[in-house]
What does this fold into?
Amino acid sequence: MMLEGLQLMLENSWIVPVGVLFGMLIGALPGLTSSGTLSIMLPILMVLPAEVALMLGVCIYAGAEMGNSFPSVMLNIPGTPGGAVTCFDGYPMMRRGETARALGICIMASTLGGLVGSIAAITLTPVIANVALRFGPVEICIVVLFGLTIIARLSSSGLARGLLAGFFGLLLATTGIDPTYGQLRGTFDVVYLFDGLPVVAALIGLLGFSEVLMHAEKNFARPGESAGVQSTPRVSWREVLRGFQDVLRKPSEWIRASIVGLGIGAMPGAGASVATFVAYQQSHAFASPDRKKRFGKGAHEGLIAADTSNNAVVSGALVPLLTLGIPGSGSMSVLLVVMSYHGLAAGPALFTFNGDIAYALLWSLCLASGFVLAIGTMLAWFAWRITLVQLNYMLPVVTVFCLLGAFARNGYVFDMGVMVVFGVLGYVMKKHRYPVVAMVLGIILGPLFEANFMRSLRMGFGEFDIFWQSRMAVFLWALFALTLAGPPLARRLRHVYERVAGR
Amino acid sequence: MKFRPVSGELIVPVLAIAYALFVWWEQKNGVYQADTILYMRMLIVPVALLALFVIAGSLYAARRNARRGGSDPGDAGSDSSKSRSFLRPALLVCAAAGSVLSMDWLGYLIAFPLFVALMLIAMGVRSASRILIITVCTVLVLHIIFVELPGRSFPSGVLSVLTKLS
It folds into this structure.
């Protein structure tokens, strides 16, 4: 299966550089996130053959995670949330006149992060999939709740807001015909809602159009002006190569950051922003006292940690999607929608029935790492030009693509309206710190959760005992409880310990 | 008569409660299977409780801020700057909604260029040539990618009527 996947990937390998290049350009434009872009591109991803569409999606994601380093280093503006940590040491290097070297470090670190991450994912994913094959409807229900809770727990706005967004998403997902008994629910007697909530339109609204509205608020000064950059930085190839050497001389840094990125990427909801912070903190913790002082002032180690983990996250995020059918981020949610549109059952069954596509996806990440190095080096020369594209030209055009994306799935103008409504909802949520990804996850996983919940109840003759009868279910519930209660309990214990130690 | 402004933080939980109440009302007045009712209530109850918890938390934080003499972090800024910052998103939403509502009778070849041109002007683009180039390119690209290549049909509106008449 692994070799069949490699063959399938090689047959369609032309899409990899296209995806990486497009992703890099998107990532380099401050404000455009990979999840927003992928959601806008949904109609194109649906028209393409399944394997090509998924490979394109993954390569755009990988390219965007590297491309965000360009504005982070040159303008001190992260292209995506994951690029925030790159600013800490990348921008001071740029101010010191080491722009090319900083970009070289980012390109090589991203390449190695992607490579290590993809190799690890190719090795680990089948093992996890084998375990996941033992999952029945009860276990799937718990895993869905688990995914929602982790996203809620990791959102910066607090557990209650995250859970509210997630459960609200689950409730919205009940719109339409009840899958078990065929009764209409929450349709407001609108014929277009009888088939259920238009998921693609809701997704584009929540992730894509809301982003457009957030940017429409801002003043449209050139990003460089707001960052105080007076002269346009030039990039020399020799300096880029010096940056490559800086990374290769510090294997412990990029190996550690790759492991952090891979591990955190595999946790639903954590994503690149969490991984880069943790990897940066780890790099700081392991540095000598002398080197610690350089962090935040242009330390190479900090930049390596941020960019390696940033790209290792992509491979990590694919693991729960492919093995459990749980998308760990907004971009992965879009890929899940693409998979279900093409009739691929995400989760353990994917490796049984469409293992070649699953492996092709993982192999394409490996190849994408090579293209990140090649295309990234070429783009470094005129990266500053990409970062200066003005948003006021782009917003109306992106809005049109959002409207078209919503329409293309079912061919109803009504879906465009749904996209606008969910865009406004997403905008309000983002403005007031409600995690949009939790709601997206609720809407996407709602039907899966309901179907498995009903199946479990019937298997248990209407009794709830079935939810803790198997060993796997008990283990998952324990993990679930630990996720909910663990962090506050640890905080409380630390507080008590500090109070006792203070006496 | 002057009303106290309501914090935007409350919009999501209030919306969640309103939708939960609607679903609950629908379940109460319709004929549903016991399993469906059980599942829906399993979602309605946590949504309502979490929304109430978030509302209580927001109100408590606002009250505490008011006592300390600070302002709500979610509502920072003067009234005029706030209304100005909301103007462009509101305009974008209204224009998008307008183009959706007029799509069936105007058709995408008229509604989208109109929308793009108007929004470019609203976003501060003043060069007529740039507006023209961006508008034409956008429509051309979307026509090729979404209509020509996959062969999908988009609402053509009055243009189809004119074509038939001619």
Remarks:
- Chain B touches chain A through 65 residues (CB under 8 Å).
- Helices of chain B lie at 11-29, 34-68, 79-106, 108-122, 128-148, 158-165.
- The radius of gyration of chain B is 24 Å.
